[in-house]
Write a structure and sequence with these properties.
Elements: H1 2-6, H2 15-27, E1 35-38, E2 41-44, H3 51-62
Antiparallel strand pairs: 1-2
Length: about 60
């Protein structure tokens, strides 16, 4: 699928890690990205947010 849809090559060394990430996302019922878990609390960001904005949001949540 990656090759046909996006012209990308599969990276066999990353398959196990990718499957682990997907399994955890399914287990935690992640519905959108980014979803952050802080002390067991799920925080979702429904709007597009860049890395610096996410860092700011996480720091505020931890304060």
């Amino acid at each position: 699928m990656l090759t046909e849809a996006y012209g990308l090559q599969e990276q066999p060394d990353n398959i196990d890690l990718s499957l682990s990430i997907i399994a955890e996302a399914i287990q935690r019922h992640v519905k959108m990205v980014p979803t952050v878990f802080i002390n067991g609390n799920e925080i979702q960001y429904p709007d597009e947010i860049d890395a610096s904005g996410l860092i700011k949001e996480v720091e505020q949540a931890l304060a």
